[in-house]
Amino acid sequence: MPSVLTDEKIPNNVNLSSDKRLQRALEAWQPAFIDWWKQMGPVGWQERDIFLRTAVSVETDGWAHFDYVKMPEYRWGIFLEPKQEGRVHGFGDFAGQPVWDEVPGEFRNMLRRLVVTQGDTEPASVEQQRDLGATAPSLYDLRNLFQVNVEEGRHLWAMVYLLHTYFGRDGREEAEELLARRSGDQDKPRILGAFNEPTAHWLSFFMFTMFTDRDGKYQLSALAESGFDPLARTCRFMLTEEAHHMFVGETGVQRVVRRSCELMKQDPNGDPRALGGIDLPTVQKYANLWYTLSLDLFGGEVSSNAADAFASGLKGRYKEDRYDEHKLVGTHFAMDVLEGGKVVHKDVPMRNALNEVLRTEYIKDCQRGVDRWNKTIKDAGIDFELTLPSHKFHRQIGMWSTTHFTPDGEMIDQATFNARRGEWLPSEADEVYIKSLMKPCYEPGKMAGWIAAPLKGINNLPAEFEYVRA
Ligand SMILES: [Fe+2]
Ligand SMILES: [Fe+2]
What we know:
CATH topology: Ribonucleotide Reductase, subunit A
Radius of gyration: 23 Å
Order of helices and strands: HEEHHHHHHHEEHEEHH
Bound molecules: fe (ii) ion
Low-confidence stretches: none
Largest sheet: 2 strands, antiparallel
Number of helices: 11
Structural class: mainly alpha
Number of strands: 6
CATH architecture: Orthogonal Bundle
Shape: globular
Number of domains: 1
CATH superfamily: Ribonucleotide Reductase, subunit A
CATH class: Mainly Alpha
């Protein structure tokens, strides 16, 4: 396993040049990817020098190499974590048996669906964010946006590598489809709901990277446990990149919150909107929206697909080795379910509850981020608390989608929900107001008025560094 990437057309650490057929197939896909990037990637800025991190190897000092690069020249490539000799299945019916280096025939379709579903989210988010370069609150933020975008492009490469390498002709067709679907398109939408929602401004971008990229972390973590070893190794490396995306989201919202608190103290009526800021109740509404859209991504609460993916060793739990028991036969998970129109707490066979198990871990992680936002508010001496709404609120997938709940988790009828919706979720007027704040601020070190400066810059550089060259 070469850890240092060679200077090939497609940077990689998978010894691509030893497999000429695969190399040719991927080299044929590459121009289609670049076309897609130019057509659907960031609007503008493509000829500018952006200070970006590019992976040059999977070693700790090699995957965070920083330099100025023009986005279309970014070295998208294929990086897998090194193979662990003797690795065995960590869970499911095959626990303890050697992991697979090839796709097992009986699980081929399930595995392909997992890879395609994950792969589809990567270009989708780039499409959702493509207009944001026109209105960034600073060069620091602009650079972070483009970092996220090029890495989502690389994540697409990661999944396409698996499709081309292990799924023959179907895999090649799926790889083409990944470039053909479009976020929000009526006829050819992306596969999952949250990836068809517009990310029309920077508050939504920060909420997306906080909540929706964090769903990605949990899905990738579950796939990083896979007994299909190439998938596990691919996802492990993707997770190192994903951490930065969530940093962008969590600290982005935190800076909005900090600025809001400053402006509340400056305005005689305590209203940050009067001074061009974003008030905390509006921050709460956007958190409610993106958090609940992201909860949907975990799928149905009781799911035979989840049970099958676990049984077959393809998709595990978050950090499987923290658990003592890895077969989950005859065990149960206590959870709320909807039965005869009522919420009941009951035991569900563990394998069928695995979507809910993963969602529960995700919720705890989101709460830790919200706690840090609340500390910022408290430190500013403001009496306000941001909260995560109930997991039953505003759901569009799964059992809770059939009825309505308040953010506190109280069941209500549709009329009440409709009447109160604007208290809980962004209204048309909120959206118009947030968009009205979105004016670009491209002087090095300067920030738009609705957001505080970051505590430090990227790669330990100062905030006033020229992250995007004029
Ligand atoms: Fe990603
Ligand atoms: Fe991401």
